[in-house]
Structure formats: C-alpha cells, structure tokens
Task: structure prediction
Amino acid sequence: MTDKENKCTDCEQNCCRNFFIILEDVKDKDWLRWLSYHKSVSIENLQKNKIQVWFDLPCEHLTEESTCAIYNKRPKMCRKFKCPKHEQNNS
Result:
C-alpha cells in the first residue's frame, strides 16, 4: 500500500483509535452512569431516545504509523466505512 492509498495517516480522528455505539430507549440510567465511570468511555445524548457511547480504544491492528497492519484482510465493516473527512475532500 502506498502513502497515496493510505488516507488515514494524517487523520486526527482515526476511526481505528476509537468507536461508538448508539443506544436507543435506555431504561436503566444507572447502567449508563456505571459506563461513564470507565476512563475510556464517554456518553453523549443525541436525541431524546438516543445515546451515543464512545469507546476510546484503539484497534489491536493499528500500527504506530497509523496504518492498518491487516489492511488487505480487514473486516467488511472497515472496508465499507466512508470517512466523512475524505468524502468532503472528494466533493
């Protein structure tokens, strides 16, 4: 893979460094409080019934150069991901 092909090296918010999940209709707010006590987790309210939970946990295949060590064998989720930063640059 060439530097031109690796679009992630200049990204400050590399998707391989953290990820989020969206929860809907959370009934147990104590569970959210418990989650928020963990150092690598942050919680954000999106809409009245949606909560975004961020996990600041890097992928085990992310190299020190911010490249993917398994790029050619990466999961489908990684292949399908469209980086908003690069989508804007291509417009």
